[in-house]
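Subject: mismatched residue count in predicted assembly?

I count 221 residues in my input, but I want to confirm that the predicted structure covers every chain. Input:
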Amino acid sequence: DVKVTQSSRYLVKRTGEKVFLECVQDMDHENMFWYRQDPGLGLRLIYFSYDVKMKEKGDIPEGYSVSREKKERFSLILESASTNQTSMYLCASTAGENEQYFGPGTRLTVT
Amino acid sequence: SQKIEQNSEALNIQEGKTATLTCNYTNYSPAYLQWYRQDPGRGPVFLLLIRENEKEKRKERLKVTFDTTLKQSLFHITASQPADSATYLCALEYGNKLVFGAGTILRVKS
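Triage response: the counts match. Full output below for your records.
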């Protein structure tokens, strides 16, 4: 069964902290994505990756960075968390022009 | 940039009726379009993909249409059930990624 897992379901961090969100997929997919979802705004793409050590900026990359050292793992890093980064973070993977498989999401609160 | 519009207001319908959700887009001609279902607190789950050369696609009680002239997709759930209550997202191919709409909440009442 296809699976995308995220390291935490809920996370509370303080302003200025460095935050790591991890995503792992077991489908050998080349492509992985990080989105954030806010009420009324839908899913917005932060970063994506088409291969190991490769990354591309999405629509809202400011304040974020990513790392993909292994094919199955894609990490999102908030270098210095701010309150406007409080959101639901969703990771997804796909093989080419196909459906995206999403993880359960991480609800991050920055206080 | 691509703009996608889905009904921002929730759609409330009676069990057994057909639910119809709308997805309109501008500024682009996508090669394909996808529909996802999202339950509260969970990640979206893929439902259907329809390509630009396909007018209609069906899967069980679901039907999707794609009108590239109107720049619109319609998503139908026939014989709706309370278990169909969820948020439904449309997503358009845009280069090498998907662009998602904000979603429409569907509530099916028994």
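The interface with chain B takes residues 4, 33, 35, 40-45, 48, 50, 58-59, 90, 92, 97-105, 107 of chain A (CB under 8 Å). Marking this ticket as 'not a bug'.
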